[in-house]
Structures are given as C-alpha cells and as structure tokens.
Amino acid sequence: VQLVESGGGLVQPGGSLRLSCAASGFTFRGLGMSWYRQAPDKEREWVASVDKIGFINYADSVRGRFTISRDDAKNTMYLHMNNLQPKDTAMYYCARPDDNYWGQGTQVTVSS
Question: What is the pLDDT of residue 47?
C-alpha cells in the first residue's frame, strides 16, 4: 500500500496550491479518503474527507477555501487550497485512517 503526496511548497498569503495523493496497492475506488495536516508543535488535525459515495466534509478552519476531490480512474485524490494563510502552514497527509493507510506528507509553507 502506498499513498504519495505531492504539490506542496512555499506560497505567499492569499496564494493557492493543489496537493495530489496518488494511491496504489489497494482498491482506491469506493473507499473514503481524507486529508490531515500537522503543524510544528501541534497535534495532527483533520482537514477534509470524501467518502465512498462522494459525500464531502471540511474542517471549519478550511471550509470555503479548500476543495477536496478524487479521480478514481487515476487512483488520485486532490486538495485545492485557495486564499492560503500562515495558519495553514503544516505537513499535509493523505490517509485512509480506517485501514491505517498514511502517506509520507508534503510540506506547505505560507509566508511572505
């Protein structure tokens, strides 16, 4: 099982990024998936989820700015992040917590 995140980087406040999560080694289609993040010296925080039928939910801290999506044909999940703020700086992980599947993370840094 592999989850490989990409797309992180350094962006100025107000900027945008798109994170990708490429899944392999398991049947991605039909499974719920999530994004989490962890900032330095803080606990891991749930960001967003998309379940097996496409129902989507967001943490209050990102609702209206982040969009989660998936392409089952490509075994890939995305997180579109708009209007990024310094408080969004963290390592971002894609995951399927029910099966304890976690990626290695991609760093997002928001700074001027």
Answer: 98
